[in-house]
Amino acid sequence: MPVYIDDVMHLLCRISEERKMKAAIRHSGRGALAAGVTAFVGGLVGGPPGIAIGGAIGGLFGAWMTAGQFKPVHQIILEMPPAEQQKLYDDAFTIIRRLDWTDVAQLTALVMGSDALQKTLATMLINFFSRELGAEVRYGE
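Above: the chain's sequence. Below: its structure in token form.
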């Protein structure tokens, strides 16, 4: 039976909910933009010393901006663009393709009934989030 991307996304969401996984996605582009803009404005206002002061202030502001707030992983998965979901599906399918199942309900029951499979998929999620999204993942509340 074919496995659809939405079904695998819901399976991964369920695993992340069970394990109370949260992630903070760093917005390094915005932080770099803030640092660059303040360095530019500092240069206009104060010349070379203004560039240094503006860059330092912008760097601190950019670091604060990129600190990120943690969101539930299942929420991030559902908000990902289709191309990112496809990559996540491909990673997950390499793990679940060897299982013997007939429909998505049975697949979900197999995975949720096996702590080892859940751990494997949770580890895959952590690796995907850090590699593809530059996110930090945490467990718990």
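The longest strand covers residues 22-25.
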